[in-house]
Structure formats: C-alpha cells, structure tokens
From TrEMBL:
Residues 241-250 have a biased composition (Basic and acidic residues). Pfam families: Sec7, Sec7-like_HUS, TPR_28. The lineage of its organism: Eukaryota, Fungi, Dikarya, Basidiomycota, Agaricomycotina. GO terms for biological process: regulation of ARF protein signal transduction; vesicle-mediated transport. This is SEC7 domain-containing protein. It comes from Dentipellis fragilis.
C-alpha cells in the first residue's frame, strides 16, 4: 500500500471519488443479477423517519415471506443509495464514521443472497479503501468498523456458482484480511477479530477441495499474518499479558471466549445451504454510534489460541488431520519461531505449550515416513532449538539422542573396522545418559536384552537408521542446531556433567568421528555416503575451531548464577563412578556394592538417623542406571528385607490411592518372577502404605490383598492374550470381606477399577510403543520442572576436559579425511584442523595430542617406510642448475604425492613451533629423517659426522668407495699395509648398472626437494638442542630405539635365523657367528643422537644412560658390525666422555667407558686405534685432573697400549706419554701411573723390535744397521730415555713411601728386556741406561731386593743373550752384560756382605759362575775368553779381601761353614771352565811354623815372653 493516503492535495483523486467508484462497481455487478435486474425498486428505508420528522404517522403494509425476501434484496441495494445520499453533501468523507461508509459493503459480504461476483466486488472495494487510506487508524469509529470487518469476512456467505469464481472470492477475502492485519490498522484489532481472521485464513489453507494455487496463496497469507502476530511478542509485556490470559480463563464460559476451530473439510461460506444466520445491522445509525465501544488491542490470548490450534494439528495420533495439513502447520509454526525468536520463551503460557505438546508432536513427526513431513519437522525443530533452547534442556537431550540413534548404522554380525556406535534406542540411552523415565523412545522397536559394554542400563529399542536424504537432513539439522560456538560446551556442562543425563557431547563426537570413515556405512547406507562424511567432518572441524577460538581469547566468563565449574567437574567425576558402580552392580551386585562403598557412594552418610540399609536403599532408588529386573530381584531377597523396608519408606504414599501408589512403586523396579519374592514386596508395601493412613482401608492385610488384586487386575485388563476381561462385578466379588471382614465401598472399587482399566501400570522394560512413549514423556516433563534451564555460556573452563575425552578420535577422523578425500576445501579444512588441534594441545599442555598429530600426519606424508634397505640401491644422479640431484624411488613418489607434501609441510610446521610438546612423536619424525637420508633428500648439514682426525665428513651411503675422507696414513712398511687393511670399513661392492631417469622423475624429484626445503628440517634439527628436558629425553630415546632396532635387534633376529638353519643335532661351525653389513642408517641415527647429546651438555646426567646403553651393546659385539659403525661408536663414546669430565657426578662413567673400549678385540681395537687415542688425548690434554687413582691410570694407559700396534695411532700415543713424562708443566708422573707408564714405554720399544724382526725376515738378510729414519724405532729409542727419566723421578716421588723398589724393579726389568731388542739403537740405549741406573745412585737395593734384582734383571738378560745367534754385536753385548753382571755383584753383594754378618751370597755367586761358564762355552770368541776370566778374577780377589772367599788353611781350618761352602762351590765350578784359575789367584797358604818354646819360672806369673826365632 502507498505510504501517502489519497488526497487531492497530494495529487491523487479524492477518497470520495474512490467511494463512488466502488459503489458503482458493486451495484453494477448486482444489477446483472436477476434479483436486482428490475428498475422499480423503492427505497423506503427512511419513510417512517421522514413522516415522524414532519409530524405524520406512517403505517407500513403487512408483508409476507416473499415481500420480506424482496425487501431484503432491496435493502442491500438501497444501502448503497442511502450511502451516496449521505456523503453527497459531505466535503470530507474521512470525517464520516467509517462504519456508515462500510455498512453496505459488509451487508453484501454477509448476505447469503449475494453471489460470488457481487461478494468479490464488495471485497475488492474494501481492498481499495485500505489502499487509498479511507480505512485508517484516524477514521472515526474505526474500532467498531474493524469488529464488523472481522465478523463480515469471517462469516462471508454467498451463493455458490462456478468453482473458479468462488475461489476468487476467497482470494479477495485473504487480501482484505492481509490488508487489515498487516497494515497500520493491525494494532487496532482485538483478540476476537484476530482469531476470526486467522481462523478464516487457516481454514482456507486446509480446504483440500480448493485449488493448489489458492491454498498456496492462503498459506503465504497465513505466513504473513503469523509474522505480524508473533512479531507483536517483542512489544508485549509478558507479565501483563499473562494476567490477561488468567482473567480470560476466569470468565464464565461463552463470555468473550476465544476459540479457533479450523476445518479442512467444509468452508463456512461457499454454500448458502450451509450458511449460518449472522447478526445483521440494518440501522446505519447504530453503526455510526461507537462512543460506547471499548476495545483492547490483541495480544497474548489470540497468539496463545493460534499456537494451540497449530500444535493440535501436529498431533500425529489425531486422524482427522492429514499430512498436508500437518505440513501446513509445521510451516506456520516454523515462521512463528523465526519471527518471535527467544522472546517466545519469555511467556510462560506459550513456553508451556511448546515444551509439552509442541515438542512431543514435533519429535514424533521427525520420524515420519513422509519425507516432506520429516523435512519440515526437522526444520521446525532446528528453529525451535535455536530460539528456545534455554528452556528446552531435556527436550533437546531427547532429540539429540534420537538423532544420534537414527544416524547410527544398523547392527551387523561384525562391526566395521573403525567401530560402530550402538543402535539400541530404548528409553535409556546406550551411553551413560538419560534414564528410562526421561528419554522416551521416538521409534518403537523390539526390546534388546544385551547390555552394551560399559553401560549400566538396559538398551532402548532399536531405531531404523536414516538413509539417503533423511540422513542428510538429520545431519543438516544437527549442523543448524550446533552452529552456536558454545554448543559443545553446553552439551558437556548440561548433560555430560549431569548424572541423570546422557553423555551427549561424547556421543555426538563419537558419531561424527566414526561417520567420517567410509567403512562406517554398510551396503544400505553407502549411497551418497560422501555427503554425510563431509557434513560430519565439517561439524567436527567446527567444534575444533570454536574451541581454538576460546583458547585464543574468545571466551566468556562463567556466570556466577550457574553451578560452579568445579561443582560441575565434581559431578562429572561422580557420574563416572556411579556409572561404573551401576555397571558392576548389574553384572554382579556384590562387586558393584563393594565398588560403590569403596568410592563412598554408599554408606558415607551413616548416622543415628541413617542406617546402612537406608543409605543403600537411597542409592538404589535414586540411581536410574540400575537394571530394573535385577533391582527387583535384589531387594526382594530374604537377606535384604531391611533394605526393602527402607526402600519402601522412601516413597510418599500419603493421600494417594492404592492404584497410584502401586503405579509409582512398580515404575521403579520390575517385579521378580518368584512368588515368594513378590510376597515379600507386597507385604512390605502393605506395611508402609497402611502406615500412611489410607482412606477406607481398615487393616494391613486388606492392603496386602488389595495390592495383589491391583496386580492381577492390571494383567487382566491389558494382557492381549486374555480375551474375557474381568468386569467390575467380578472384581468386587473377589474382594468381598477382605477389608478386615467388611467390604470395600462400591465407589472405592469402581474408582480403583477405572483407574487400572483406563491407564495401565507399565512395568519397567515394557515401555514400548505409544503407551511407553506417553509414559516416558510424562516423566520427562516431570524432570523438566526441576532440571532448570539450559546453561548457555561460551566458556573455556571445560575445554581441557572435553578435549581430553575426544582428541584421539577427532584427530584420527581428520587424518582419515585428509588422506581419503580429494576435495580441496576438505583438505584445507583438515589442515586447519591439524593446526588447531596442535594449538589446543599446546594450550592445555597435552603432549600426547602432539604425538598423535605427528603420528597421524606422518602416516599421511608417505615418508614412513615399513622397512628400509640395508644396502642402498644405486640411484641415478643428474645435474640440475649446477646441483647434483639423486633420483630415488622416494623422491619420485613423494614428489608426485601432493597430499603427502601438504601433510609434510603441516607436520613440520607444527613440530617446528611445538617441539617441547612432543614425546612419542619423535619416533615418527626420526623415521622420516632416516628414510629421507637413505634416499639423499636430507639437507647437507644433517649428513655430517664429526671426527677427531679429519674434522667433519659426510656419512657414506655405500661401500668403501664412499668411506669418509681423512688424512692418508703414512706408508711405513708392513705394519702400515696391515693397518690400512684392517682400517678399511667396507667390503668391496660390485658396480651395478645405474637406471636412467625420465624427465617426469626429475620433475617429481625437484618437487620433493622443494617440499623438503619448505619443511625446514635443518631448522628443526637445530631446534632439538634447545628443547626442554622431557622432550629432549624423549627425542634421544626415540633415536636410541630406532638405532637399536637397526643394530642390536636386527643382529639378534638374523643370528636366530642363521642358527635355525642348522640341524638341531649338529653344532654350528666354529666362528660362524653372523655379522651385519654396513648400514648407513644406523650410522646416521647414531650420529644424530650423539650430536644432540653433545650439544645439550647441561642435560648429560639424564641423556648419558640412554646413549651409553646403546653404545655398550654395539661395542660389546663389535666384531659383528661394520667397522665404520664401530668407529663412529668409539668416537661418540669419547666425545661424550669429554663432556663427562665436566660433571663430577659422572666421573666414574668415564672409566667405565674406557674399560669398555679396552675390552675391544685386538683386531677391532687396532682398526679404531686412531679414534681411540685421538679422543683420549683430547680428554687428557684438556682435563688431566680427572685421572687420579691407580685404577684410573691403568685404564687410561691400557687404552694407550692398545693403540701402539697402529702406525698412526702410535705416534699420537707416544706424544701423549712423552707429555706425561717429560719435564715441564704437563708432567704427570705419579706413584699411581709409573707401572702403567713403564709398561707403555716397554711396549713402544717392543713394537720397534717387532718391526725390525719383520723386516729382517722379509729381506732374508741381516741388516748392518737399523732403519734410522723409522719413526717406530725412533719412538722405541725415546721410550728407553723416558724410562730412565722415570727412574730419575722415583726418589723424589717415593721418599715418603715404601714403594721405591716396587716401582723401580719394573723399570729395570724393562731396560733389561729391551737390552736384547732386535733394534740395535734400542738395545744399545737400553743397556746403557740399565748400566747407568744399576751402577749409579738410583739403584740401592737392600738385602732382600738384591736377589730379586739379579733374578729379574741380570739373569734374564744373560739368558736372552745366550740364546742370541752368534754375531760380533752379540759377543760385544754378552761381554758388556757379563762385565755389568760382575760389577753389580761386586757392588751389591760384597758391599752388603761386609755390612751384614748374615749375608749369604752362596746361591747368587754360584748362579753367576754358571752363567760365566755358559758364556765361555757358548761364545768362544777371544774377547769373551779375555773378559770373563778377568771379571772372575776381580770378583774373587775382592771376595777374598772381604773375607768371603777364604781358601782352606792347614793344619787346622778355622773358616766358618759359609766360607767353606762358598769356597768349595767356587772351586768346583771354576775348575769346569777355568782350571787352576782359582789357585792362581788365591793360592793355598803354607802350613804355619812350629810354635816357639816358652820358659817359665816359679816366680809369679807375668807377661809372656817370646821365644827367639818364632814367626808371628
């Protein structure tokens, strides 16, 4: 309609012109009808009035029926003539009461004499009046006019003609009603007028015999009217409007009563025969006097009536309405919800109607077999839940539970791989959730007796799974309902944390995650399953996105008016315990009660008022998760009578009829089958019920009998197998005299009988079909009155618990979607989902989630391999842009796998930012590194290995041709060649033909390289060393596990396989131990692990045990691995030992490592000698202080000794020893290391002798001199000098100890031994230093040490010289040795003998003479014959002078026993090789002369006097 009313001032025609035009239009149509075709009609309507005005009396003629009929027709026409006369002289017709202007038109519309065209013209005129503004809010008497208008269009009657013309009339009616209600005048209408108009339109919509076009037009009009009506709720005051409703209800019936009764079979206007009489207003003056008309604008009463009518139409059990009508009502209701929004919930009367019958009918229609009904019902439910969900807590739970059950696939014999959710849809959810009394089944089906795992309550009947379009509709509806960011939070807080509700959050997530898998759909659901998969994935990712938004700050505070978040979480915890306890109770009551008591769910509230029986009974009655049949059996056992009594006392039977009391009782448990148990229950009930004081019952026994009769009557009246039902007379007859000898009153029994007959007592687990639904719905409403409103808040308080419960299944579903779906949008959303899950995991501190994300994405990358080759194939290498590119199988496949590349980029972006959150996921990361390494796709930085010798080198992928670069060893004869052979870590490999690479392979490889570059693996590798302790330990453990698998575990497996090939009765050949070929991956893993450990020295305490265990296992079986792996293990161990030197707590581990290296087999030790001594040298040079004890020095020097046989290693070893011994700040000779140093120096000299011997044997000639330039001989000669330096240091080191001789003797022994070295330089130097030491002040043995000196130093030296082949140099050395021997004897033995009377040189001297004899006998040279006698002579003379060697004396031998024995032994042995030599040196003395005669006198004794001539 135009906004500007018609007016000449506005440039339009005047309203008066419009009025005349419409009068003409209507009367013209009327004159075409036979009733008004004659022109002799008289208009005497006002004759009597005119006569009265003139003072005349006028009497009208008496008319019969025909005259009255004609006058009625005349009145219709005359009304227009009168109207024209009245307005002819009126300048502004807008001042004329609108009732007077519209009265003739209303009369036409009401009149049954009118035809369709006439009525249509009158209605068209009304429409014109609305358009031109003639009918407006400013019109006089507008309220009365609106009432007349409503009555007229609502009771329009006309003679039916052709159907099309009649429908035009109806269409005009719809237009006028829309003009009235949708314009400015709509606010002026009253409740009655609105109801009349709405009823008219609704009836038109429901007329099935009308054309489709008209009904659709009427439906659109109805939608427009509903929008206007329900939008009014936003302006109404709920409290005032509710009071209006209450006042209207208190009025007597029939007085201003609102009522709408649309009919879909008859219309109240088209037929004159069916028309009703309408109040006619023929007095225009009456219509023009509205001053007493009082009107209240329409409001809640009319809206409530409209809602009632619409909801009643939805009743699926009301057969008077068809699906078409219900579809119409659903559309209207949906519009009402859309327009009113949440405001509708502010009106209790509207809210109550929707919560009860509205939801009830909508939910039932949602399972309709009519697709259109299902679609519209779901749409309406979605709108309702989006607008009123705050008030629909339990209704929403029911609908969501039903939706989940419908979306679950049917049960098959074997569940799909990814798991199938339960389809059991009884009145109790298969998941922990709403009990039977609160979750009515929307789909009646047979009962199921199986209990789902983990569920403590019986199943609901199965529902038919939704298929095809219905399934998509359900998912779309679920998507619509869940569009709120707080939806999942609301589910969790309102249901999952409520002990009496289902775990809807967990169920929905489970459904969505499983529905992403194609295997979740059986054959009947496979069609169009991709749409369902997409929808479910979108819902999942929306949930993750909403939670991420909350984690990033888009969270609302939890309202203080709600239950605290702590309280809800406590409720959730209690719920889990209750579910577990109930499940165990349903399996075995005793076990369940023990669990409940242990967790303080029963018997925790004991007091004088609360006994154990009452505490247990309270739990049994309140817990809805218990099996009702088992509960009935449990409480009726003889041992549980006290529990049964307390259970009964929990009911409030006061004032309740026995039928209701029994109904309430039997709804809580199922009666057991045994008669004795039933009797116990009945007796207890009788006692408790009688104590409540029921009317008309005189005794407890009467209650007992009456209770039994109620049970029997219920069975009789409602068991379909019983054909002949019990009558009231039969029932009364059976109860005669049981009321304490008297009868019950007929009225009492009739009431009881009718109660049972009309309403069956439904036992638990029998709530099926419509009866079960009605019962459960009643219980749901009862619960909803106390459950409170839905808590709605987009809070992040519960996100962590929610994420903990579902993260694994969510990530698995996203991974499956990413790997399976090809839609770019889905892939993009999946990638975002991965990142958001990682964000949440970091926000909540959940490393398990990161690990799962890493595992999931790593599987999607295709970079993992079930088994990596040990021997790397030879791949083609091409040069692209001056870079060498290896075209491997992995690079080709990965480069062609776009989805795998996307997964890799996402994975490593997540890992790069969240390394500290990863634990187990490191295994997959390093497995990918390993695979990339094998296929030459890793960055160069990650392929390097540190070395003590050559710095940094690349890890070779194949055999000896790729061995690490290092300085070439010097070629120094046979030892060098042998060393080079032993050091070669690879066996030769046959060259294989290199395959060619296609252009596509090269392009794919370049794509793979670009992707790897984008992943920034080198940055990740660098970030690992910056990890916190826990993730760092996890990373190292992952590397160790992978390395272990490729070394120790693989060796064990292959060894077992080899052993199994031999016959069990035979022993495998000796030396057939299986060994592994070179495996580059094992070296790569070891290098990475050790590199990380070495760069994270702050955490060496935690990392050392992990790495050492692996190194120990590898080195313990060193001969069975490739030499390069062993070399890298040695280097790794020594690199870490350098770090250990800075950790006093780990100092002992250094020597455990040294001991491990010292235990290497010689051939292995020689191969890695360079690495061992280089690492050891670095440690000792930088941290000399770590070696303190003798044991530690022994281990260190033992390692040094193991390297002497290696040419290059020996150089470093000697330099190290030389630093220890040489004078200066680095000198480290101590009492603890002297033995070891002596042994090492001795080995150096011995090694030089071996070299000379090998060269002599090789050349088969006697060299005239040593190889003076040989570094080995040079080191051996220097070692002799160092030995003497040690001897020089001994006095100062041992002056305060008794260790001098213990340390001195090994040095002398070594010099003695090296005095026979094959090298002339060494033996000369050794003998010189030995002579210098023995004959100098450094050697001063005591009495006990002299023999040891000769036996371990001199005698072995002479023995070795005696064995030497004859040679001039040999003779010379023998001579020198003999001279030294006799000099030492003279110095030590004779000196000590002079100093000690107990000194006995007999044995030692005898041995010396025997050696002299052997020297003369073996070496018959002149030089020997000159030297030995001369030396013997000197010793004999000295011994004689010392009184040790005394010849016999005659005639009386005065020598002691030692002298005699020594002389005899000396004489005997010397006679063998020097006859008469002793007599020449020491002749036997002549006999003494006669003694002189001494003369004595008798005088006193005096001094003796010599006799002349006596010899003194």
């Amino acid at each position: 309609m135009p906004t500007t009313p018609y007016d000449e001032a506005n440039g339009t025609v005047s309203p008066k012109h419009v009025l005349y035009s419409e009068i003409l239009a209507v009367t013209s149509v009327m004159r075409k009808n036979s009733r008004w075709a004659t022109s002799n009609q008289t208009f005497n309507t006002r004759d009597s009035a005119l006569a009265s005005n003139l003072g005349l009396r006028r009497t009208g003629p008496v008319r019969g029926n025909s005259v009255r009929q004609g006058s009625s027709e005349d009145d219709l026409m005359s009304g227009f003539e009168e109207l024209k006369r009245e307005v002819r002289n009126t300048t502004d017709i807008k001042k004329v009461p609108i009732t007077a202007l519209l009265a003739p038109f209303f009369a036409i519309i009401r009149s049954p004499l009118s035809t369709g065209p006439i009525t249509s013209a009158a209605l068209s005129a009304l429409h014109s009046f609305f358009v031109c503004g003639l009918i407006s809010v400013d019109s006089p008497s507008i309220d009365a006019a609106l009432a007349e208008l409503s009555s007229a269009v609502s009771h329009c009657k006309f003679e039916a003609s052709d159907s099309s013309g009649d429908e035009v009339v109806l269409l005009r009616i719809l237009t006028v009603i829309e003009d009235c209600m949708c314009g400015d005048l709509g606010d002026q209408l009253g409740d009655i007028e609105v109801c009349e108009m709405l009823e008219t339109v609704l009836t038109t919509c429901a007329q099935m015999r009308l054309s489709e076009a008209l009904r659709r037009s009427a439906e659109l009009t109805m939608h427009a009217l509903v929008r206007v009506v329900f939008s009014r709720l936003h302006r109404l005051d709920p409290e005032k409007e509710e009071n209006r409703v209450l006042r209207a209800e208190d009025q007597p019936p029939g007085e201003s009563e609102l009522s709408m009764a649309p009919s879909q079979h008859t219309l109240e206007s088209p037929s004159a025969e069916k028309a009703a009489e309408l109040p006619e207003t023929t007095d225009a003056g009456a219509l023009s006097s509205p001053q007493n008309f009082v009107r209240v604008e329409y409001g809640l009463p009319s809206i409530l009536e409209l809602l009632r009518v619409i909801i009643n139409i939805l009743d699926p059990n009301e057969r008077i309405h068809t699906d078409t009508t219900r579809l119409l009502a659903l559309g209207i209701l949906n519009v009402a919800f859309e327009v009113s929004g949440p405001r509708i919930g502010d009106f209790p009367s509207l809210r109550t109607m929707i919560l009860d019958h509205g939801c009830k009918y909508l939910f039932q229609l949602a399972r309709s077999e009519n697709p259109a009904i299902t679609h519209m019902a779901l749409r309406t439910i979605s709108t309702m839940l989006n607008t009123m969900r705050k008030h629909l807590k339990l209704q929403q739970e029911l609908f969501l539970s039903f939706t989940i059950d419908r979306l679950a696939p049917p049960i098959t014999g074997k569940p799909p791989r990814h798991g199938t959710p339960s389809l059991k849809n009884t009145s109790v959810s298969p998941r922990p959730g709403t009990p039977a009394t609160a979750s009515p089944s929307l789909e009646p089906s047979p009962d199921s007796n199986d209990l789902e795992k983990g569920v403590s309550s019986p199943h609901r009947p199965q529902v038919m799974p939704a298929r095809g379009e219905t399934r998509d509709l359900l998912l779309e509806t679920l998507s619509q309902i869940s569009r709120h960011p707080s939806f999942m939070v609301d589910l969790f807080t309102n249901y999952d944390c409520d002990i009496n509700s289902e775990n809807l959050f967990e169920r929905i997530i489970e459904l969505l995650t499983k529905s992403v898998y194609s295997s979740y759909y059986n054959d009947s659901l496979q069609q169009n399953s991709i749409t369902s998969q997409y929808l479910c994935l979108d819902l999942l990712l929306t949930f993750v996105n909403d939670m991420t938004s909350r984690a990033e700050g888009a969270s609302a505070p939890w309202p203080a008016t709600y239950i605290s978040s702590e309280g809800l979480m406590q409720s959730k915890s209690t719920k889990n315990l209750v579910l577990t306890g109930a499940a165990r109770f349903n399996t075995k009551p005793k076990t369940g009660l023990a669990f409940l008591e242990e967790n303080k769910l029963i018997f925790h509230d004991l007091s004088p008022e609360v006994s154990r029986a009452k505490s247990l009974a309270t739990f049994l009655k309140s817990c809805t998760r218990l099996d009702k049949k088992l509960l009935g059996d449990f409480i009726s056992r003889p041992e549980n009578l006290d529990v049964l009594k307390c259970f009964m006392e929990l009911f409030d039977f006061k004032g309740k009829p026995i039928a209701e009391a029994m109904r309430e009782l039997l709804e809580t448990f199922r009666l057991p089958g045994e008669s004795q148990q039933i009797a116990r229950i009945t007796e207890t009930f009788a006692e408790v019920y009688f104590a409540s004081g029921p009317e008309e019952i005189k005794s407890q026994d009467a209650v007992y009998v009456l209770a039994y009769s109620v049970i029997m009557l219920n069975t009789d009246q409602h068991n379909p197998q019983i054909r002949k039902r019990m009558s009231i007379e039969d029932y009364a007859r059976n109860l005669r005299g049981v009321n304490d000898g008297a009868d019950f009153s007929p009225e009492y029994l009739q009431t009881l009988y009718d109660s049972i007959r009309k309403r069956e007592i439904v036992m638990p687990e029998e709530h099926t079909g419509q009866l079960g639904f009605e019962f459960a719905w009643k219980e749901l409403l009862a619960r909803s009155r106390v459950s409170g409103e839905l808590m709605i808040c987009n809070s992040s308080h519960f996100d962590k618990e929610m994420f903990k419960a579902v993260w694994k299944s969510v990530i698995s579903a996203v991974t499956h979607a990413f790997m399976t779906f090809d839609d770019d949008y889905i892939i993009e959303r999946s990638i975002a989902g991965f990142r958001q899950c990682a964000t949440l995991a970091g926000h909540f501190g959940m490393p398990d989630v990161f690990d799962y994300v890493v595992v999931s994405l790593s599987q999607a990358t295709s970079l993992l391999s079930d088994s990596l080759p040990i021997e790397v194939p030879v791949y083609p290498v091409v040069e692209v842009e001056r870079q060498s590119i290896t075209i491997s199988t992995l690079s080709v496949h990965f480069g062609a796998n776009l989805k795998g590349q996307l997964a890799a980029v996402v994975l490593f972006n997540i890992v790069n930012r969240n390394g500290n959150a990863i634990r187990e996921g490191w295994t997959q990361i390093f497995e990918m590194f390993e695979n990339l390494f094998i296929h030459s796709l890793l960055p160069t930085r990650m392929l390097q290995m540190e070395d003590f010798l050559g710095g940094v080198s690349m890890i070779p992928l194949r055999g000896s041709s790729n061995q690490p670069s290092r300085p070439a060893p010097r070629s120094d004869g046979l030892l060098s060649a042998l060393s080079s052979y032993l050091m070669t870590p690879y066996s030769s490999s046959q060259e294989t033909q290199v395959p060619s690479a296609t252009e596509a392979d090269i392009e794919n490889t370049l794509c793979a390289i670009d992707c790897i570059t984008t992943c920034r693996l080198d940055e990740l590798y660098a970030q690992i060393i910056k990890l916190e302790l826990d993730p760092l330990v996890a990373a190292v453990r992952a590397l160790e596990a992978l390395a272990y698998e490729r070394t120790v575990a693989r060796l064990q497996r292959e060894s077992d396989d080899v052993a199994s090939t031999f016959d069990t009765a035979l022993t495998p050949p000796e030396g057939s131990a299986h060994s592994l070929p070179y495996d580059p991956a094992s070296v790569f893993l070891l290098e990475m692990m050790v590199s990380i450990v070495c760069q994270t020295s702050d955490h060496i305490d935690e990392l050392w045990p992990i790495v050492f265990e692996h190194l120990r296992l590898v080195l313990s079986a060193a001969p069975r691995y490739s030499i390069l792996l062993i070399e890298r293990a040695v280097v790794s161990l020594l690199r870490i030992c350098q770090i250990l030197t800075t950790k006093p707590s780990l100092r002992d581990q250094i020597y455990i490592s040294f001991d491990l290296l010292g235990g290497l087999p010689p051939i292995v030790a020689n191969s890695v000698a360079e690495q061992i001594i280089s690492g050891l040298a670095l440690i000792l040079q930088n941290h000399r202080e770590v070696v303190r004890s003798q044991t530690e020095w022994n281990l260190v020097l033992a390692l040094v000794r193991s390297t002497i046989s290696h040419l290059e290693a020996a150089r470093t070893s000697f330099d190290l020893i030389q630093q220890f011994v040489a004078e200066g700040k680095d000198q480290s000779v101590t009492v603890d290391n002297i033995p070891g140093l002596i042994a090492v120096l001795d080995d150096f000299s011995t090694a030089a002798g071996i070299i000379i011997e090998v060269e002599q044997q090789t050349s088969r000639r006697r060299p005239t001199s040593d190889s003076a330039s040989s570094p080995v001989v040079d080191r051996g000669r220097k070692a002799i000098d160092l030995l003497y330096e040690i001897l020089k240091l001994l006095p100062s080191l041992t002056e305060k100890t008794d260790d001098h001789w213990r340390l001195l003797l090994p040095a002398l022994t070594s010099l003695s031994r090296q005095s026979t070295n094959a090298s002339r330089e060494i033996r000369t130097a050794a003998f010189s230093q030995l002579s210098r030491a023995v004959l100098g002040p450094l050697v001063m043995p005591n009495e006990d040490e002299v023999n040891e000196l000769f036996n371990r130093v001199f005698f072995p030296l002479l023995d070795e010289m005696l064995k030497a082949p004859p040679h001039s140099e040999t003779t010379e050395m023998r001579v020198r040795a003999a001279v030294l021997l006799f000099k030492a004897f003279m110095r030590f033995e004779i000196r000590e003998t002079e100093a000690s009377e107990n000194w006995d040189v007999h044995v030692l001297w005898t041995q010396i003479l025997e050696l002299a004899e052997q020297l003369v006998t073996v070496d018959k040279s002149d030089q020997m014959y000159e030297t030995v006698p001369e030396s013997v002579k000197n010793v004999v003379l000295v011994m004689n002078a010392a009184g040790m060697l005394v010849p016999p004396q005659a005639p009386e031998d005065q020598r002691d026993e030692r002298q005699r024995l020594l002389w005899d032994s000396t004489q005997e042995r010397m006679e063998r090789f020097l006859p008469d030599f002793l007599a020449e040196i020491i002749p036997t003395p002549p006999p003494p002369p006669e003694p002189p005669v001494t003369v004595t006198s008798d005088a006193e004794p005096g001094p003796e006097q010599e006799v002349p001539g006596a010899t003194v």
